[in-house]
Amino acid sequence: MIYSRIAGTGSYLPAKIITNQDLEKLVDTTDEWIRTRTGIERRHVAAEGETTVDLAEHAARRAIEAAGIAPAEIDFIAFGTTTPDLVFPNCGTLLQQRLGCRGVPAFSLETACAGFMYALSIADKYVRCGEARRALVIGAETLSRITDWSDRATAVLFADGAGAVVLEAAASPGVLSTHLHSDGEYKDLLYCGSGVSKGFDAKLAISMTGSEVFKIAVTKLGQVVDETLSANGLERSSLDWLVPHQANIRIIQATARKLEIPMERVIVTVQDHGNTSAASVPMALDVAVREGRIRRGELLLLEAFGGGFTWGSALVRY
Ligand code: UT7
Predict the structure, then answer these.
(1) Is 25 buried (19+), middle (13-18) or exposed (0-12) by CB count in 10 A?
(2) How far apart are CA 83 and CA 106, in angstroms?
(3) pLDDT tens digit string along 203-248?
(4) What angle do CA 229, 79, 43 make, to 5 degrees?
(5) 145-158, pLDDT tens digit by residue?
(6) Residues in contact with ligand 1 (CB, 6 Å cut-off)
(7) Ligand 1 atom closest to Cα of 306?
(8) How far apart are the CA of 296 and the centre of ligand 1, in A?
(9) Which of 10, 94, 170, 297 meets the CB 3.0–4.6 Å disulfide criterion with 59?
(10) Closest listed residue to residue 4, CA positions, set 122, 180, 111, 140
(11) Distance, CA 202 to ligand 1 centroid (Å)?
């Protein structure tokens, strides 16, 4: 049997930081409201002209270096993003050209905050079936470009960043299972109304009915973590770490309660990163790996939920 294992992780945050105090000057909000309702203290946003692929390239090179391989050894690229540089070529292909792994399959997919979970699941399947040996999996966003900075309901939440992992073929897992879901019934609760076929309008930004999204996120994430554990015949107590989507500290706490996992075993970066959609899980993973908290051999549950709705999870032996 061939499995995939995480050989290296990387992440990148653009230099510019916007604090809650900065936002107090932009919209009718307070640092206290943002901290207590979301857990966010600051977020990073891309500089003018800095794109999703620019951020992704930094994260990818760090993950490739951590894996101890050369960029040319990557033979598959799956790139989750909702904020691509261009309509086409896709971000995966743009990144492939920069890394110099020419000719390998590369694509991007747009499943919002679950983009990394979808990309990881697909890359894992390609490695398992022997068609890829070293897959680069990316989650990267410049959500600041589709955020209405005068709308306090969303401006305080979203941010930019990139995370990456290199998956490598291995004799033992690695990725134990992935679980993906979507339900377009909820499309009006979280969306960006601008598009190519429907009509491009740069004025249309992210729109979210936050309290409804919150409730459904807690329910669906609770279900998907149960599904993940039962698919592997595991008890909650087997988990070493929860690496959740970083949308709101209260959603993270609710999922941790469901798993009966103490917050000391939950990776939380929302205070520094804000909600970076597809980038959030791989960035949190990389932070924890580089801080030495997540160690080789430990069992991780990764999960994300977002617009669509789309959601998913992965159980990973690091
Ligand atoms: O990553 C994709 C998935 N996204 C999520 O998972 C996000 C899910 N939703 C959330 O995280 C939360 O619903 C929010 C953080 C967006 C909002 O928190 P909430 O506790 O659900 O607040 P709310 O929308 O029910 O609003 C409560 C109050 C309202 O005022 P009134 O009607 O009670 O007077 C809002 O107008 O808070 C007000 N409010 C704000 N006040 C200060 C809403 N946004 C702000 C703000 N600053 N930025």
Answers:
(1) exposed
(2) 17
(3) 899 999 999 999 999 999 999 999 999 999 999 999 999 999 999 9
(4) 85
(5) 999 999 999 999 99
(6) 29, 33, 37-38, 113, 152-153, 156, 210-211, 213-214, 217, 247-248, 251, 275, 305-306
(7) 2
(8) 38
(9) 10
(10) 122
(11) 24
Which pTM value belongs to this model?
Answer: 0.98
Residue 202's pLDDT is 86
- What are the backbone dihedrals phi and psi of residue 203, each rounded to the nearest 5 degrees, phi first? -80, -20
Residue spans of alpha helices (H) in the chain: 20-26, 31-38, 52-67, 91-99, 115-128, 152-155, 210-231, 249-259, 270-273, 280-290
CA distances in angstroms from 246 to 80, 135, 295, listed in the order given: 16, 24, 21
pLDDT greater than 90 at residue 260: yes
- Does residue 101 carry a catalytic annotation? no
Cβ–Cβ contacts within 10 Å for residue 231, how many?
14
Residue 277 to residue 135: CA distance in whole angstroms: 21
Within a 10 A sphere around the Cβ of 213, how many other Cβ atoms? Answer: 20
- Rounded to an integer, what distance in angstroms lies between the CA atom of residue 9 and that of residue 25? 36
Q: Whose CA is nearest to atom 43 of ligand 1?
A: 153
DSSP readout, 103-154?
Answer: TS-EEEE--GGGHHHHHHHHHHHHHHTTS-SEEEEEEEEEGGGG--TT-HHH
**Residue 145 Rama label (left phi>0; alpha psi -120 to 50; beta):** alpha
Cα separation, 7 vs 96, in Å, equals 19
Which of the following is catalytic: 91, 101, 113, 192?
Answer: 113
Distance of CA 83 to the CA centre of its chain: 13
**In 149-214, at which residue ranges do the beta strands (DSSP E only) sit?**
160-170, 175-182, 190-192, 206-208
CA–CA dist 149, 28 (Å, integer): 11
172-174-177 Cα angle (round to 5): 110
